[in-house]
Amino acid sequence: MRSLLLDTGPFVALLDKSENNHKKCVGFFKSFRGKILTTEPVLTETIYLLGPSVKAQKAAVEFILKGGAILVPQSTYGLSRASALMEKYGDVPMDFADATLVCLAEETGINEVFTLDIRGFSAYRFQEKKVFKILPEF
User: Is there a cis peptide before residue 52, judged by omega within 30 degrees of 0?
Assistant: First the structure.
């Protein structure tokens, strides 16, 4: 079964109709068949970016609870690895949420990422040399 990683940008765009990429992300999400995985830091960042509205924040949590994506908790190793990756990609830069997705790619072998961060995920490598396939394609 096909699997992909969900980054913050499209997560916000899926839930916020005012986002420029809302329609494109919703269209991609509706057409995707497979498992979508994300991390707790991505969920946290999404909730923060959706703003103080309890309704908007609840929508992000409900998205996970209703199976929109599988929430994968970080291991202690993953936290350590994320820290090392943030140092390695400090010039890009890489934030913590992105680092946890790269760790998840290393743990699962998933190379497809649903992101709007083309610059970052074009530079990041997992398992040292593997590149990400960025979706949706622009």
Answer: no
